[in-house]
Design brief:
Elements: H1 2-17, E1 24-28, E2 32-33, H2 39-55, E3 59-61, H3 64-74, H4 84-94, E4 98-110, H5 113-118, E5 122-133, E6 139-148, H6 152-170, H7 172-175, E7 182-184, E8 188-190, E9 196-198, H8 203-212, H9 225-233, H10 235-238, E10 259-261, E11 264-265, E12 269-272, E13 280-282, E14 284-292, E15 298-307, E16 313-319, E17 325-327, E18 333-334, E19 339-347, E20 354-364, E21 369-378
Parallel strand pairs: 1-3, 1-4, 2-4, 14-21
Antiparallel strand pairs: 4-5, 5-6, 7-8, 8-11, 9-10, 12-14, 13-15, 15-19, 16-18, 16-20, 17-19, 20-21
Helix pairs in contact: 1-6, 2-6
């Protein structure tokens, strides 16, 4: 059972390595032994982490003996918690870009015969690791988990996978700096790179990307199953990974079956609305979805109403004269200097070869009337 689990992890890590070029040079410090652990047991876990990170193809790792030698020269004890200044000095001496630190805590101990022989107890424990940049001191990636009735060795391999996915997500914006989204079939915009491989839905990562409005768009999302098929058909153009499953909007993420994530959106552009000081304004005037296949059924978007005044604003109404526009639930009041997000969907069923323009009218308690416009051509 253990061997098959390790083999599966190595296969996944090898898949992650494909399409990656430059390796980040890192060092892994001996993990700190917490409650119920000895330093020798934790050192063994460090070796597993090293092996799995090297297998990913994303990192080159300094040999353990070299790390130990430099630590001794600097008077740093194995497993000791280091300050940011100590980490930077150690990293500079090792000539690395990043250093991995972490702790292992055992919370409930159940002694077994296997435990006596191998020192790998079963019970409840947690492992937390972080990849820290030497140049900036910021955390580039983090992973952690608490697991019951599982060997630390098996959990450590999964932690390595989580750390790799976290690193890929945090560096996505850097990787994208010299790339642009690719548009398929004139309507589906595809994010330039994968976000990574995940065992749980990367909701917070997607929300962060949309808050930043990457590439001028704030509606990046997981693709539908049909859209994933379209992405796979253009795998070479998009630089997608072979031999791994990509998530769609209906996917169930599991620890045992990690999924690759590539985002899409159906907006051709987002027209920004300049801030009108002392007033209430929209985050954009509207959206042009471009060409939308009739079989898609509907398209969605959202915008924000910003209250740039020192008084509470009440939304009197949000209306559209067309029945094929659905307006989501929203709060009726917007506090001073606050905002409210409005979600919209536009149905294109039965409207083939039609150009659609729909205006949404927002009436406010201060007398303002704002207009948001949705446009598309159904093909």
């Amino acid at each position: 059972m253990f061997r098959s689990s390790r083999l599966y992890t190595i296969v996944i890590l090898f898949a992650i390595a494909l399409n990656c070029s430059a390796k980040m040079k890192i060092a892994i410090l001996p993990l700190s032994a917490g409650v119920g652990r000895t330093q020798s047991q934790v050192d063994g876990l460090q070796d597993i982490l090293l092996s799995d990170l090297v297998s990913s193809g994303l990192f080159s790792v300094v040999e353990r003996f070299r790390v130990n030698d430099i630590q001794r020269e600097l008077g740093l004890r194995n497993g000791a918690k280091l300050s940011q200044a100590q980490i930077r000095r150690l990293g500079q001496r090792l000539g690395v870009e990043g250093i991995v630190v972490g702790t292992v805590n055992f919370q409930i101990r159940e002694k077994t015969t296997t435990d006596m022989v191998t020192g790998m107890a079963r019970g409840e424990y947690n492992i937390d690791v972080r990849l820290i940049s030497i140049s900036t001191g910021e955390i580039l990636a983090a992973a952690g988990d608490t697991q019951r009735r599982e060997t630390e060795r098996a959990l450590m391999s999964r932690i390595a996978l989580q750390l790799i996915s976290s690193y890929q997500s945090s560096s996505a914006s850097i990787l994208n700096s010299n790339q642009n989204p690719i548009t398929l079939n004139g309507y589906l915009m595809v994010y330039p790179t994968d976000l990574g491989i995940f065992t749980s839905a990367p909701i917070s990562t997607i929300n962060m990307i949309n808050r930043k409005a990457d590439f001028g768009h704030n509606s990046w999302r997981l693709p539908t199953s049909e859209e994933v098929d379209l992405l796979i058909a253009n795998r070479g153009t998009l630089g997608m990974r072979p031999n791994i499953t990509y998530a769609n909007s209906y996917s169930i993420f599991r620890q045992s079956s990690p999924l690759a994530v590539r985002l899409v959106c159906t907006h051709n552009f987002v027209e920004k609305n300049p801030v009108d000081a002392g007033n209430v304004y929209l985050s954009s005037f509207g959206i042009n979805f471009g060409n939308i296949p009739v079989l898609k059924g509907s398209v969605s978007t959202s915008f924000q109403i910003h209250n740039n005044t020192n008084t509470t604003i009440t939304i009197i109404s949000i209306q559209c004269s067309s029945s094929n526009v659905n307006i989501g639930n929203y709060s009726k009041t917007i506090p001073p200097y606050g905002s409210e997000q409005i979600f919209l969907s536009l149905s294109v069923k039965g409207r083939q070869d039609m150009s659609l323009t729909r205006k949404i009218i927002i009436t406010l308690s201060n007398g303002q009337e704002l207009t948001y416009t949705m446009q598309c051509k159904v093909v």
